[in-house]
Amino acid sequence: MKNLSESKKLADFKVGVDNVIFSLDIRQNRLLVLLIKRTEKPFENYWSLPGTLVREGESLEASAERILAEKILVNNLYLEQLYTFGGPHRDPREDPTSYGDRYLSVSYFALVRFEDSGLIIRDLNQTAWHELQNLPALAFDHQEILNYGYRRLRNKLEYSPIAFDVLPEVFTLADLFQLYTIVFGENFSDYSNFRSRLLKLGFLKDTGLKITKGAGRPASLYQFDAKAFAPFKDKPLVFI
Amino acid sequence: MKNLSESKKLADFKVGVDNVIFSLDIRQNRLLVLLIKRTEKPFENYWSLPGTLVREGESLEASAERILAEKILVNNLYLEQLYTFGGPHRDPREDPTSYGDRYLSVSYFALVRFEDSGLIIRDLNQTAWHELQNLPALAFDHQEILNYGYRRLRNKLEYSPIAFDVLPEVFTLADLFQLYTIVFGENFSDYSNFRSRLLKLGFLKDTGLKITKGAGRPASLYQFDAKAFAPFKDKPLVFI
DNA sequence: ACAAAAGTGTTTTTTATACACCCATGC
DNA sequence: GCATGGGTGTATAAAAAACACTTTTGT
To answer: Would you say the pTM of this structure is higher than 0.85?
Structure first.
């Protein structure tokens, strides 16, 4: 940033934050995104990413957290900045002739625990989880932002332990495998190889507890050990 | 983004773009960053990342390109968005009591070809390449932005063919190896394994030409074949 | 007893790592 | 002819991939 003695006029910005909030419903095999139905023009009645304008004294991340807190009751989540979309003419409210305000959107990516994230239904049918496979047309350039978020989701799952931010405290290896399968598709990996690879790495601690789900042998419950994971930070491809 | 009927006041933003511009000087084994000496308060006489405020009708990326064009004459480069820094109080010009304008900085990451990037010296000693190993104190939060850019540089080099945006049209495998060595340090890999791995992948085309540098056997000149690289997009760890 | 789900082991193929060695040139 | 940098090959270790098989439960 620098002070300017330039001739050309500077753009005036309204800065907003838009969230791509994913949730993995392991029981029902669904990857979900949280969408809000718009009640005003432009794009009235279109679905959109939940967003807000940034307030005085509020950091961008605090703004993203506020959006989450207003829409869902969630305790366990992963949140990080995604990308900033700020080209001219991305919002029809900008007057194309008079060069009025520009709308800049800093997008954030979030992954929340599904079982643990009750919707705050202020207005019925206005806030809803949508399956990624079956999305309505989105307002503004939100589909582009969402695509960006989906790419980030897959990258993060490959390289970072964000799955454990969103799984219960204890979980079975089948749960973990299931989570990865939802995002990366069937046969993204052989289950038994997935097992032995992860267990050999040593950051999944067997709690000794077992859980029985209907028929079949009871599954061991594991716990993520953040300390034991530390050496794998910045190392490529631990999970897949 | 949504229209608001909220009680709290919104922040007003000035939006700037700051560039982390890297250059790899293979001949002299140096990784360089372009810095600008500030001539005004605050942080007068501190070095800073080159930046600008966004103009009317100008996209963020166009803004980043304009910074580059104003500082250096360069034809070959890689450019992408890095991160957005927008918390309150990151610029001392913000009045902490009155909640005046906030300074939001969208940072961009660039890698340029060193031999090909003459500095536009408008004001002597105000624009200069600095060795990453030996940096002065930077203005604002620019050291943090730079750290972010350095991380991105290493990531990109590992996973993407950005080295070829910045190498000459034809180059030797020693040049390529040298480039990676500057960023990842001595013995980041065995040279002969690096050779055979990359050649086996098949996206480096032998031009048949040779080059002699002083004593020793002449080296083959290779060319990057973008089409042959396509299958490796999104595949992890092609280069290291 | 048998289906279902969890968990183990084995075999084969591929890739990584560490070197030793040969080749072509300038001086 | 020998130092210098370029280039090839090989032997070993490690990891990935495929898949057969055993264990423990509910019904």
So the answer is: yes
